[in-house]
Amino acid sequence: MSQLAFDDDTAQRLEAVYRIRDAVRRRRLVRESLRAAPGERILDVGCGPGFYCAELAEEVGRSGSIVGLDTSAPMLALAARRCERHRNVELREGDAGSLPVEHGDFDAAVCVQVLEYLPDATAALVEMRRALRPGGRVVVWDVDWATLSVNSDDGPRSERVLAAWDKHLAHPSLPHTLASRLRAAGFADVGMQGHLFATAEFDPETYGTATVSVIASFVAGREGVGAPEAEAWLAEQRALGERGEFYFAVSQFCFNAVNPSSGSTTA
Ligand SMILES: C[S@@+](CC[C@H](N)C(=O)[O-])C[C@H]1O[C@@H](n2cnc3c(N)ncnc32)[C@H](O)[C@@H]1O
User: Does residue 13 contact residue 96 with C-beta atoms inside 8 Å?
Assistant: First the structure.
C-alpha cells in the first residue's frame, strides 16, 4: 500500500494543520535549536507550505537567504504564496536524496518531518552535510509514531486503525536511529531533545485533535480498515472529546548536529 501522497488535498490539509497552536510551538522549538543568525544562508529540505521559509527569512534578514526545497508541486505553490513578500526566499523543486544545491553553500539546514518518509533517510543526511559549509549546523525533527497513544472503548478497532496509519510513511520510528544515521553521514556533536505533544481536550489547536482527522482519512480503505470503520473510529474520538474523555499523546524528537570543520567530505 502506498504511503501518504503530498498532493493538492494533503497539501491544503497540512497547511491548515500548520496554523494551529501546537504547530506554532513546534516551529518555535525548531528555530530555537537552529539558532539562525542575521546574514546566514539556510536550506529547508522538504519545506512543505513554507512556514519555516517565511519565519527564517525574518530571522536571517535581508543580508541572509533561504532556499526551500520540496518534491511536491502543490506544496511549493503554497510556499510561493506564503513567501511572496520575502525576496530572500528561493523555492526549488528537488529531492532530498539528490539535492540540487552546490557543495558547502549553506550555513545551516533544517528538515522537519520529512526523513521519516524517505526509504533512504541516511542518503538524505549525507546530502544535507554536502550542502553545508564546514562548521555548518543541521536540525532534523521527526515523530516516533510508536509512542502514539489514544483513548478508546474499542481497543481492537483502534489498534487496527493505528496499524494502518503506520503504513503512511517509510519509517514509523525514525528517531530510534537518527543519532546513529547522523554520525554515519559524517555529522559531529549530535544532540537530541524529546518533546511530548499531548492533550486531554478535543481542541482543534492541538496536534492530537488535528492528527486524528488526518489518520481517519488516510486509513479508510487500507490494510483491511474500511471507510465505515475509519469514520466510526473518528466519531468515537469526537464523542470522547464531548464527554471530556479524549486523550492523545505522541513524542517528537529534535536532533541537531554539526558538519565537522575537518574530516572526510562525502560525495
Ligand atoms: C509532513 S510535511 C513537512 C513540511 C515542512 N517541513 C513542515 O514541517 O512544515 C513533509 C514534506 O516533505 C516533502 N517531501 C517528501 N518526500 C520528499 C523528498 N524526497 N524530497 C523533498 N521533499 C520531500 C513533502 O512533499 C512534504 O512537503
Answer: no
